Structures are given as structure tokens and as C-alpha cells.
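Example complex used in Figure S2.
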Amino acid sequence: MSREAYGVELEPAEPDPKEEGRAASHDLDWERLARAAASGPQDREDAALLREFLTFQLAGDPYAVPVERVREIVRMRPVTPVPRVPAALRGVISLRGEIVEVVDLRLQLGLTAAEPTRTSRIIVLHGDDGKMSGLLVDAVTDVLRVTEEAIRSDGQGESGRVAALCVRGDQFISVLDFERVLDLGDEL
Amino acid sequence: MAARRPKNRPRSKAYREFVSEAEEILERMRGDLADLADQRATRDEAEPDLVNRLFRSAHSLKGLAGMFGLDGMSQLAHHLEDVLDGLRLGRVPLSSPAVGLLDEAVTVFSTLTQEMSESAGTAPSDSVAAALVARIEAAVRSPADSPGTTDPVARLAVDPALLRALTEYEEHRLRENMRRGRRIVLVEATFEILSFEEGLAELTKSVREVGEVLSTLPAPGDTPESQIRFSLLAATDLDELALESALDLPNARIRTVAAPVSGEDGRGPEAATPASPPKVTHAESAPVERSGQNDSHSGDRPGDGESADSVHGPGEPAGGASELESLKSISDTVRVDIKKLDELMNLVGELVIQRSAIAGIAARLCADPATARVGTELSKLHKGLDRKLQELQSGVLEVRMVPLRQVFEKLSRVARRLRRDLAKEVRLEIKGADTELDKLLVEELVDPLVHLVRNAFDHAIESPAERERTGKPPTGTIRIEASQRGNHVVIEVADDGRGIDPAVVRARAEASGLVSPGEVLSQRETLELIFSPGLSTREEVTETSGRGVGMDVVRANLTALGGLVDVDSTIGRGTRITLTLPITLAIIQALIVGVAGQRFAIPLTSVLETLLVEPGSIQRSEGREMLNLRGHPLTLRRLAREFGLPEASSDAKLYVVVLGFGDSRLGLLVDRLDGQQDTVIKPIQGPIQNVRGVTGATELGDQAAVLVLDVSALVDDAVRRREAA
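Predicted assembly (913 residues):
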């Protein structure tokens, strides 16, 4: 997609996760993405009309969340399962001592389940109340700048978890509804 | 600085400081005055410590008002101080009307402070304070009885120089103790000059355990230069032999200077060996030089103005001068926002986690022969870090600790109000007010405790007439006792009222559907029902069962603090509610257990014991697994099954973690025990947050989150399932 246009050099997907100091690397990805976002094209449209999304892959398709919700992106790390919760809640991770729940976005969107791979990342979002949540995705791809008119609020699915579709050339990117995507129901 | 500030307008920002500090002092005084009023009603002499405390409060108040240029308040405080000083020196009798005005003075102070706070710092008018000052002056002028004709102090078998060195207060205490017929002794001890402070402190402490230290004075005598001698003038009820064995100090010599008289009170004791009677002027003892010493002794009343420190020489930890030390300590105190302490605590918590991470790395390095040497060095380093970190941790924890006294003083006030409102005769007995607890916990304890006291007043204690009918003393008693047991603090609230009738509780519980009619409950289980929300929120229960609304709230509060509530009651005899809670919430010790490859943390406070059992020793009843624990059936739950994890093979040995929550017990079956660890429990952030059976999570140093079990929920569930079966 827009990778060439912005000259974004995404983090190569090969680093060996087994030893590398995890604590040190957790915001590496995000830093790179943020830098990429900052060095956008010179001839960008009116800033007021721009919106920014973090895009990622799920089962081969592109999805996006608003950049302002993203707190950091962390590599896959051991997730501690939590009993008595819906399967889509994969478990909890410790983020420098803070305990954050991780939602398996594949399961949450009703896609086929898959075990995390080396490219898998946890996108840590922050809510209005300052509380954090994590989304497990297949791979983080890009920071996307689009104008408001590229966002179509028609054509979203029935679950309500996709708030809009963003049109990039001939490709649709599903923009997630932040609130609903974290709604695991009251199955407790 | 005070003089330069314009009158009637303290600096606008500073007035808040004044208000908050004054309120704190007044709060303390109100509590103490209430105690004083109690003593006034029952005895003719006030407890010296209490009067001293009040005196110090009045003194601080005076200083505070003076500093802010509030003349009216300062004047009033000055007169308060005078009355109290007279009281502690025995010049003003406890029965004097002036003492009765103290309450009023504190109320006036509160009102004035309140006005100031509302008017954002405008100094209130002085007229109210001035009017009260006039009344106090008039009341003080009423003559006090002069003491007996012959001065018993003059007949003491001690060096007259020593007697002259006594301050007026010390002399008053001496007289008082002689009047009560206690033995007066002189304890002389020699210390190495290098370490005399510790030695003297120790001696003073042990004397205090068996009596009262009246005065500590350096003793003259031909001691080597490297040594120093002290005399402690003390009063005790023990005889010389018993005292000697109680003190058990090889370097101390005990001499009785006035033996106690047996028999009636009021007569002076006989002097052991009458020495030449020194002339001790009573009223205003003049300044005297301490014989053989070059530190001068001023005759000022201790605590009068700023001269307090001059009574004892520098570096002399005088036993009889505790009031002076405390005066000083007021200015040595720093107020810290509890949030700042929380931040510190969090930092320490993170350090603890990182320390564990270092331990892990060290262990890995040690395991590999190629890096074993570095590993050993690292683990040595880790041990040092560990020690220091533990000191830091306990240091920060200690700073957070406050005595329960604050809460208990509030309870006394509540009790006083209730006594008035309900016209019931109730005595509130408080013990263990010095027990310390995390500040945060103390705050959270106020509501539950007030609730319990109010309940006892309202419903448990009968009217005086009813009490007499049942052969009880007309005055009811509510006893509040706090004590520390290991890492826990136990607070008991006991009354001698009518008790809880299990039959009534049962009937109510059945009526509200909490219990089915046929269900068999032990008496304890029935009593426990008063904590159920469905039962106690009903008004009728209050009248019939003698227990009030909101016991469920009390339990909820305590549970939220990681504590327990227990109830024990006998009809006609009374009720005892026991609160047990951890000393601090900040860092808890946890037992780490393993099930199916996953680790869980269990707060050690809920763990009674752990056992290793053969699968064959597990018995079943109606499908429920049980263990014979020293003759008692212990219900078992498999953590794996509870949490839907794969279970261990059926012939593997299992560990049983015996959990206690209140009186309920539960054996939790786990695959492994992974030892104990200090943990900082963090809430879980995210969409779910509340999982039954999980209270939070923690990190143990390897960056993996470990869930912390909610013992109360697990035990509750097990009990409920048993009842449902």
C-alpha cells in the first residue's frame, strides 16, 4: 500500500525474540513509526483534514486504529492466561509492572484463530479513563495519513466493531471502533 | 516574624496552614479532654500523662496563634496552659471549675478556627475569647486546698541537694506518689561515658516497667573519668528485693528512701532513715544550682515558654523529662502527603521486581560453566542489593505507619455523643491505641469501626433498667482492643449487651430467602448471616436481633482491605466482633503455586498451612472431595478444575494449600509449591478487569504476569456450593 509513498521503513520482521532484552525493545517499533509519521510528504493536504491511523494485518487483511489511541507497540511476550473469561481475552502481560489485558483480535472479530508468529505484536491502547488495553495483531504495518473524505462510514459490518472503511486506491482498510472492539460482553 | 505581621490579617496563604494545624491540635485535645472528664467523674486525680499531653497541646496552640499574630486566641491558649499547668503541678485540683471550662475553651477555639477557614483568613474578633479568658481567671482564683501540715518530702532519706534539684513538677509527682503510699527508691548506676546514653535509656526503661521515674539526675561521686554516675528517683509498688530482681542490672544500686506505709491513704510514708531535713519551699521553688554540676538548672516550669530545654543538660536523656522531649518532637515532625509515600512505595516495588530479575540472570549465569564466575559475582552483588532493598522497603513502610490512636479518639467522641443522645450508661474501654497500621488502612477503618460502636450502643447495650433486671451492672461496657499479631493487626469490638439471638437471625434469613427452611447451619454459620447483604439492610432486624444495618458493608470494607471479620455472640452475655487485617497493603508476601504449567500467587496472610498428600488419602462424600485434617473434614477444591486448566495425572502427589477466611477453611489442591515471594499486587487493566477468584496480578521479576488469587471469593464459592448441594 502506501509504504513507498511515505518512505516508511518498517522494522524488519526477523529479529530473534528469544534473547533480546525485551524491556528495552518494547517501544522501538513505535518510535520508528512515529518518526515515519513525522516525516510525511512535503505536499500534504490541509492538516485539519488529515487523520492518522496505525494499520496492521489480521488474517491477511488490513485494519486500522486511530493513532491517538495508541500508547505503544510491544513485541509478543508470554501472555498469562486468565481463567473464567471469554476466549478472545488471551490473558494478561506485565508492562513494566503494570498488568494489561490482551485481546486476541482475530478471535474478537470472528476470524480464524492462529498462534502468534514472529511478526505478531501487541498494540497497547489507552482509553479515556487512562486505563490500558492490549490488542494482539498479526503484524503492524504502517502509519497512515488520510483525508476525512477517504473515510467511508457506510459499509461497515454487523458487529459494529468496524466503525468505517478507509479507501486507499483500490483497497479498503477497516477502521476499528475503539470502544466496541474491546467489548467482550458480560459473559462472566 | 510574628510581630511584623499585620494583626487580624494573617498572610492569606498561610492561614490554611494555621487552620489545618490548629484543627489537628484541637482534635487531639478534644479526645484528651473527654478522657479527663471521665476521670473527673470517677477519681480525684487526673492521670499525669494525660494532663501533660493536654498541657503540651495548649502550649503548641499558644505558639501557633502567636506565630500568626492572633492575640485573642493566643491569650486564651495561654490561660488554658495555665490551668493545665496548675493541674499537673497539683495547684489546681481536678474538681476546680476552671477544669470544667477547658471543654468550652476548645469549642471556642474550634469555632474561631472554623470562622477563619470560612472567611479565608480574616482573623476572628477577640471578644469571645476575651470573655472566656475572664471567666477562666475568675475560676482559677477560687482557692485550692493547701497541702498537709508537715512536709513528708522533707523527711526523705536523701541528700537535700538532690531534692533541691527537682523541678516543681517532679516534686509534685514525688509528693503524689508518697501520698499514695508507694515506695520511693533511689537507683544509682555507673556507666561508661562513651555509652552512657544507651545504658541510661535501658535503665530508665526497666524502671518504668515497674514504677514511675520521678527524676533522673547526674550523681556526684568519685567515679573514674571515663565513667559517669546517675541517680534515678523512682516510685514503685514493689519491695526492694522484687525491684532488684525485676531490674536485674549488675551496675545499679537500689536504696529505699521512703518505705511505703501500709494502711490508709493520705498519710505521708515514714522516712527510712531521717536525714537532716532539708527545707523545700513549695509554692515557687527558686532557681537552684545542681550540686557538683556545672549545668545550671533553671526553676522555670518545664515547658514554660522556650526555656524548656534548659532544665536538663545537653546530651542527658533525662527520664523524668519525657514531656520536654515530646515538646521538642512537635517541631521535628514533617508532614508528608500520603500520595508521595505511595509513589515511593511503588518505586520500591519496582526495584523489588528488578532485583528478582537480577537474581534470575545470576542463576542462569551460574548454571553455565563458561559464565559461572561472573554469575557468582553477580549473585554476591545481588545479595547485597537485596539486603539494602529490604531495609529501604521496611523504612518506607515504617514511615507509613501511624498508631490507631487517631481512630480510637474518633470513636470516643462518637461514644460520647451517643451516650448523650441515647441516654444510656456505656463505658468505652480502649486498649492498644499504640498499635500501628498503614496510614491508608487506618483511614479506611474509621467507618467500619464507627459503625460497630454505634451498633453496639444502639442495639446491643440494654437500657439501665433492663440491665439491672438481668443482673448486669447498669453501666454497659464496650471494649475496643487492638493488638499486633505477626503481620496482622487484630481489633476486637466487644460489648456486654444482649447478644445476638441465632433463632431470630435464622428466621429473618429464611424470610428473606437467604436460607432454605430445612437447611442445617451451625450456630457460627447462622451468626455469619448477619454479614449477608440481604439480611442486615432490613430495618426490622435491627430491632429484633439487636444488630444493626450495614454489617455487610463492614465486611465488604474489610475484605477490600484484605482483612477478615468474625463474629461471636452469646445471648444475654454480649457480642464480640473481631477484625483482622494486614499491617500494610503495599507489599505482601505471597505463596507461589503451580498448576498445569501456570503460576498463581496466594497472599500468605490467607494461608494457614500447606500439606503434601497422596492421592489415595483424598476421600469423597457426595462427590465432594475431602481430607481428614487432624480429625476435621477439610473441603478440597482443585484449582485446575476451578479454572478449567488441565489436571495432573491421577496418581501424582498433590499439594494442599489450606486457606482460611474468617472461620471458613478450604483446601486448595495444586500441582506444585514454588516458594514465597514479596509481591506488589497491581489491578488488572483492560476490558474485563473483574474475574471472580482473581484479585489482581503481579510480576515476579521475569516479566511474566502472575495472577493473584482472591481467597475470599474461592472460599465463599466453595461454601456456597456446599450449601447449594
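Helices of chain A lie at 3-6, 22-25, 28-38, 105-108, 178-181. Chain A has one domain: 22-181.
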